[in-house]
Design a protein that fits this description.
Layout (H helix, E strand, L loop, with lengths): L7 E6 L4 E4 L6 E3 L3 H13 L4 E5 L5 H10 L3 E5 L13 H13 L11 H33 L4 H4 L6 H11 L5 H5 L4 H14 L6 H36 L23 H8 L13 H11 L9 H7 L8 E2 L2 E2 L9 H13 L6 H13 L1 H22 L7 H23 L9
Parallel strand pairs: 1-4, 4-5
Antiparallel strand pairs: 1-2, 2-3, 6-7
């Protein structure tokens, strides 16, 4: 056990004050303005403090964390669940003293905090995801306004935000009402398959309030598309900066990114350069864009997690221990880290795949345990393979559904023979 003793401090961040305990009994109170944070850092330097532990409380800790790191402190950001006290005796003063005491005995585990360029990548990527969610909201607003005017375009086109849909919406906002002229704006592939359906869908009953709502939603959607492009440009600049002194690798053919593809030049090559040539896209479901999402949350050094079990537990993908014999406990609610959510999204797409063993495994589990457990289990399998690839360099080749089914048949045969032996029966194999 690491004993830190008297060179440590505990910090608890309240809504209006921060409480600092540089020892077992002393507590100092500061405000939450930047000048107060700098005064707190000076106070800790005067006390000879070298290492600080503080709870991760929303986003309030970020600026204080950066100021303390800038002043040379070894800052430990810890999960609040590690520092819980007895219920009914909780105060901010006791919290900072309790954190300091636990930290002085080396009983706390530090959270992973992105630093340097990775912190910038994470900021831009998370902001991009926020803009995508906001843009999706305004897509729903466009659909609603068209349905209210009985323009049934959302029911005919898979995506009204595609080239054909946006061309039609723009023409409607410019005053065009002729269905034939609106139909002519569609892409050739759409005209070949759905001309009659689109023509019927464009026979709408136009109203002033409907056009007004459609225009507002369209302009808001275009605004967020511009914001997303600016995020892409910022991501491109930081990736170029990070890889400018590295040996560039040939990316070769890459998996297509079907949705929300970022406008980043040679994204695959940038990712290969960051990871020293190890290619995560060999894993099922992972494209260059989803790899960028995972990187922004976990970084390149996955060895900070000692094993694949530590990694999947940090992601929130490890199975819960809520059953013991006949007793069933109510599962405790835990947070869902962003990185774990990325793997869950990948798992959802794999459940539909008929050529990947992970999909067969997930569908089989879904039939017994339900979709939520199946998604979590498949996400955990992907995360395990990702950790192994990046830490141990193991090559992963999906053996396919046929191999998975063969393994399942062999297991079933083994179980059947064991059951027949217990019942004093004989298994006869037919030709």
């Amino acid at each position: 056990m690491e004993i830190i003793h008297n060179n440590s401090a505990g910090i608890d961040i309240g809504s209006r004050n921060i409480y600092i305990s540089p020892g077992y009994s002393e507590v100092k109170v500061f405000g939450t303005f930047t000048s107060d944070f700098r005064a707190a850092a000076s106070y800790l330097l005067e006390k000879g403090t070298q290492t600080v532990a503080m709870e991760a409380t929303g986003s309030y800790w970020i600026i204080l964390y950066d100021i303390l790191v800038e002043n040379g402190f070894d800052v430990w950001l810890v999960d609040g669940r590690q520092t819980r006290q007895v219920p009914g005796r909780k105060t901010d003063v006791k919290d900072c003293q309790w954190i300091q005491q636990l930290h002085s005995y080396g009983l706390l585990n530090r959270c992973f905090v992105a630093q340097g360029d990775l912190k910038e990548v994470r900021g831009y990527q998370r902001l991009r995801e926020d803009h995508l969610r906001s843009a999706a909201m305004h897509i729903n607003h466009m659909q609603k306004s068209m349905i209210e005017m009985n323009i049934r375009l959302p029911e005919v086109l898979d995506q009204i935000q595609g080239a054909s849909g946006m061309a039609i919406i723009q023409a409607i906002l410019e005053g065009e009402r002729d269905p034939q002229k609106l139909l002519s704006l569609c892409h050739g592939s759409v005209l070949k398959k759905k001309s009659a359906e689109i023509l019927a869908a464009l026979e709408g009953f136009y109203t002033e309030r409907g056009i007004f709502a459609l225009r507002q939603a369209y302009q808001a959607y275009q605004f967020y598309q511009m914001q997303i492009r600016e995020c892409d440009a910022a991501l491109n600049d930081i990736l170029v900066k990070m890889n400018q002194d590295k040996d560039h690798r040939e990316a070769g053919p890459r998996k297509p990114v079907r949705h929300h593809k970022p406008q980043i030049d040679e994204l695959g090559r940038h990712m290969l350069d960051l990871f020293g040539g190890r290619d995560a896209t060999v894993l099922p479901g992972i494209t260059d864009y989803s790899w960028l999402q995972i990187y922004s949350e976990t970084g390149t050094d996955l060895e900070r997690w000692p094993s694949e079990k530590h990694f999947t537990s940090w992601l929130g993908l490890s199975p819960g221990q809520n059953h013991s014999g006949k007793a069933n406990r109510k599962p405790k609610k835990k947070g869902r880290p962003n990185a774990g959510q990325i793997f869950r999204v990948l798992a959802q797409s794999l459940l539909k795949s008929k050529k990947i063993s992970f999909g067969a495994f997930g569908r089989r589990l879904r039939g017994r345990k339900g979709p939520m457990i199946a998604i979590k289990a498949v996400a955990r399998k992907i995360a395990i393979q990702y950790w192994r690839l990046m830490v141990k360099g193991q090559e992963f080749v999906d053996q396919g559904v046929a191999n998975y089914e063969m393994v399942m048949i062999k297991q079933t045969e083994k179980h059947l023979k064991k059951l027949a032996l217990e019942l004093n029966l004989k298994v006869i194999e037919s030709d």
